[in-house]
Amino acid sequence: MAYNGGPMTEAMYYVLLALMHPNHGYQLMQAITEVSNGRVIMGPGTLYGVLTRMQKDGLISLAEDDGRRKTYQITPEGEQALLIEYGRLKAMIQDGTILEEGDENE
Fold first, then answer.
1. Is the confidence at residue 18, as pLDDT, over 60?
2. Residues 50-80, buried b or exposed e (16+ Cβ, 10 A)?
3. Domains present along the chain, CATH in parentheses
4. Of 25, 31, 46, 103, which is least surrounded by CB within 10 A?
């Protein structure tokens, strides 16, 4: 099943961001905390569930599996999906500027 291009979960978005550089599980959890400025702390259960789903969807692939640890990397499809989601989030922020405009009228 391929990714349908709908809105991503926060976990998916940060996994893809963190996989702009290939990583394995433990490093990936640290990278997610880093790219989210400490806002997202992902445990192994959540991480491996998301990795499995994203691998099925073709957004990530195994770069290496030495039997002890698996290193994941983002695929071209994953990069495209990440760019689409980034654009969607930017548009949502832009749409939200109406809230700031409302403050100016008071």
1. yes
2. bbebbbebebbeeeeeeeeebbbebbeebee
3. 10-101 (1.10.10.10)
4. 103
